[in-house]
Amino acid sequence: MTTSTTPAVDVTTGRPEKTAPSAGRRSKRVDAITATAFVTPALIGFILFVIIPALGGLALSFFQWDLFSPPQFVGLDNIVRLFTDPDMWHALGVTALFVIMGVIPTVVLGFLLAVLVNTKLPGISVLRVFYFAPMIASAAVASVIWAALYDPRFGLVNQALSWVGINGPAWLSDTTWARPALVIMMIWGALPIVIILYLGGLQRVSDDIYAAASLDGAGAWRQLWSMTWPNVWPTTLLVTVLQAVGFVSGSFEVSLIMTNGGPLGTTQSLALYAYKVAFSDRDIGYASALSLFQLVLLGAIVLLVRLLVRIRKAYS
Amino acid sequence: MTSRTPRTRRKWVAALAVAAIIPMLAACAGNAKADGSAGTVDGSTIVLQTVNSLQPQFQKYADAYMKKYPKRKVEVRASTDDGAKYAQQLATARISGQLPDVFFNVDYLADTLAKANVPLDLASGIKDGKLGSLRIKDFAAPFVGQYRPISNPDEVTGLPVSADSVGLYWNKTLFDKYGVTEYPKADWTWDDMLRVAKEIQDKSGGKVYGLGSPLQDGSNQLVFGPVLRAFGADVYNGKTGKSDIGSPDAIKAWKLLISAYGTSSNPYSANANDPALAFSAGNVAMGIGSRAAIPGTQAALKDEWNVQSMPTINGKSTAGGGSYGLSISQTSKQQDAAWAFLKWFYSDAGMAVAQKVGGVIPPTNDGIDNGSWKDTGGKPPANIAIFGHSARTAVLLTQMPGSSGTVLTQATVKATQEVVLQHVSVEKAFQQAQDTVNAQLAKDFKKK
Amino acid sequence: MRTVLSNTARYVGIVIGAFVLALPLLFMVSGSLKSATEINTFPPKLLPTTPVWQNFADAWNYLTGGVIANSFVFAIGIVGLQLIISLPAAFALAKIPFKWTGVIMASLVIPMFIPGNLTLIPLFIVTFQLGWLNSFAGLIIPMAAQCAFAILLFRQFFVSLPGGLIEAARIDGASWLRVLWSIALPLSRPALATFCSVSFLTAWNMYIWPQIVAPDPAHRVINVALAPLAGGENSLISPSVGLAGAVIAMVPVLIVFIVFQKWYIKGVAGTGLE
């Protein structure tokens, strides 16, 4: 499926249209040479900066290396350490919490907001810009803004809480609240893309079903959950996968900038842990093993989701 | 689609890539050590790297040098104030062969940087007269000692720029605003300081903090080192090769330090350099800070302020001390030009500029006693002379071998957070911290 | 009557939602104009009493023009290099009969969904081995090589171009390069606009890659310079100056976003292409 407005192509089997000028063998050779020349730069880049890093990362997992002295082959030591390292398990748990705490509200809120702005009321295109704006703030920009918002005394967040009589926590210095604080900030940054994707999904839902529902006298709220929500299910699935990956990657960036994994490791995700092992401890081998483990896990989860969907489809 | 051929191809690519990577890794054993003399001086451009908070004064030093020697250029670059990240950047620059020629070094990172092969040993060059008649013995021994690698004490990897110590900064405007007339005195004890801080904090209704938290995020060794010492405990005992930050004496010190959070000082903040908690922001009535913070405070704080000697504990001074220094990098291709800059900087002419624009206390015996740094030109702090006395008596930051210094910082931050945020007992948290540090020390000693 | 009412309610809802989502950005603008003491006042104020434009001068001095120039070199370098690499490749994959098309497409797509932040360490090692740390080559080339998105986007567009036009040109003896340059490209403006805006924004907003590969001051980009102000690594810079820096960092992307909005959103929605 696709949510883009340009026509979708099944890339795994997609073949170019035959334009085949009928000039025979010579032209075929010219075609082959030109095509090779055209794809070579991309392939070199791909091999050098995608394939080699992947294989190199795999190879390095079996070495101990500090970037200075020659690497030493250590066999499975790094892999064994991986499974016996309490910091790794803790970081893995933190990563899972980031994803769970982040993805569900992002998807639900994104869906509701998309339904809200999916209208042709005058002026809507201008108003929608505000919905999309958080998307263009980089992690660094967002962190500067939210660090100020979360300031225990001078920040707007605790100020707003004090209006309703709540004494707000010292967000980023608090073992309970640091993680939710980062999650809230990441939800803010992730909502625009979710809204955009849902808008695409909603526009493909036929108006006829609503007309039918209105005749039935279904309430707006019931209509939303019993008709709209199931109809955008493919979008929901896509958004969920994209956001799960997005929160794994995004939490790394913001916790590196704002809390450096603290306090007491409550915001130290697996990616950040690998980063620290690589660049603070300069233990490249173990860091490679950690990165690899994370990719394998992520891949396994994505495959699992696809499998579940296929099973669901088969039985429905 | 011919599926057989590509698959075999892919296998080949994979095999080739693996084969290519292993020798690449092996080939990457560190670069050759530069010999210490290279390049010409006139017509040269050297890169001088410092940290953000010192960038303004370093730019002025460079300007003064270029004015004196118009054929030489110094390009000042500034980088993060976070020590661990600063060291990490220099290590990256080292492996990429892109080190600055001259760089800011600091006592607590000196051993780490030396281990990463970043700084050049200056001792032999100084003996050969690269700094003219200046010799290492002209520097105040404790300060230059901070740049001797623990595993190789004959080497000197950096020269101290300033003999710095810690004092109590206080904001008279805020004292007066909340009607507190008991100003800091030279004979104050820590109890006096915490009591008055609490009074201000209470009278302001929490608008102003009485004191910037002495421990900061738990990493402020410049403060906890001397306090532990006053109670009879050592952060690191060079003789036993162990840390006793978990001993009963140390526990007393930690309890006192931690008691400040939220009552006499700001509540715990995990952000060690929070600008809202800086003394120079004008929201805290008192702050414990190093002499090096004077120029920044002069520039930022419009209130009336002054400095006082650190209060005592059991009659003992709690002034910590340390220095930042300049080093030449091992891989610099302009080492002669780098030496020439250092020669000027540590000469009377250079030190005069440093005292005037940076307020540094020359780390030489003569400089501490007779330097022009005491003359602030009528600007605060009026009581600046206290830093001369405390430079002599200060408890200097303890140098620890290898990475155990970094482990110590992580351990004290962790223990502080456990106590403040998770209500673990001080005893338990800091005994655990002590165990962590001692385990690392044992590891570091074994390596040698 | 009922629709008018519900439309009004909906309008109010939309406006409230817009305000809440934009609030942090409005706060950024307001805070960037507060004085150092005003941003640290309790209770905080929503708007500055008198705008302090000096904050922007201070932020500029801290960030420096050189850092901003580096960011442009970095972002434009990535966009440019990706265009050079991906346009011919996409064209070949779409229009030139060639037996490897399927294999190349398949191998490009697989790693596309792995976020770059998770493959940093091995990529760093390769860049290190090439001797590219602290250089523009190290900043730009490894990131530009991650151009699967560009190739897929352009290919999809080229596939939809009418075959007749190209065939005619080929029969007239035009080379494939000529066909790409004079026929395909002029028709591809929407795809180019989409790609350039998405790629520029992504590159401009990158943080971790430039932070690990080129942290030295000579190659530092704006997000690397700005990030320490959020983690409090610089106690001399007041939060209001930090917010002014954030505004400065956002201006180029804001301009690109506003000008290219239609195409940009199309491109972002295209991440759904599966």
Q: How is the secondary structure organized here?
A:
The complex is a heterotrimer of chains A (316), B (448) and C (274).
Chain A: H1 25-60, E1 63-64, E2 72-73, H2 77-84, H3 86-117, H4 124-132, H5 139-149, H6 156-163, H7 178-203, H8 208-216, H9 220-231, H10 233-258, H11 270-279, H12 284-315
Antiparallel strand pairs in A: 1-2
Helix pairs in contact in A: 2-12, 3-7, 3-10, 3-11, 5-10, 7-10, 11-12
Chain B: H1 4-26, E1 45-51, H2 55-68, E2 73-79, H3 83-95, E3 102-106, H4 107-115, H5 123-127, H6 141-145, E4 159-160, E5 164-171, H7 172-177, H8 190-203, E6 209-211, H9 221-231, H10 248-259, E7 284-290, H11 294-300, E8 305-308, E9 312-313, E10 316-317, E11 320-322, E12 324-328, H12 335-345, H13 348-358, H14 365-370, H15 386-393, E13 395-396, H16 404-422, H17 426-447
Parallel strand pairs in B: 1-2, 1-3, 6-7, 11-13
Antiparallel strand pairs in B: 3-12, 4-12, 5-7, 5-8, 5-11, 9-10
Helix pairs in contact in B: 2-13, 9-10, 16-17
Chain C: H1 2-32, H2 36-39, H3 54-63, H4 65-95, H5 101-109, H6 120-129, H7 136-144, H8 148-159, H9 163-171, H10 176-187, H11 189-204, H12 208-213, H13 222-226, H14 239-269
Helix pairs in contact in C: 1-14, 3-14, 4-7, 4-8, 4-11, 9-10, 11-14
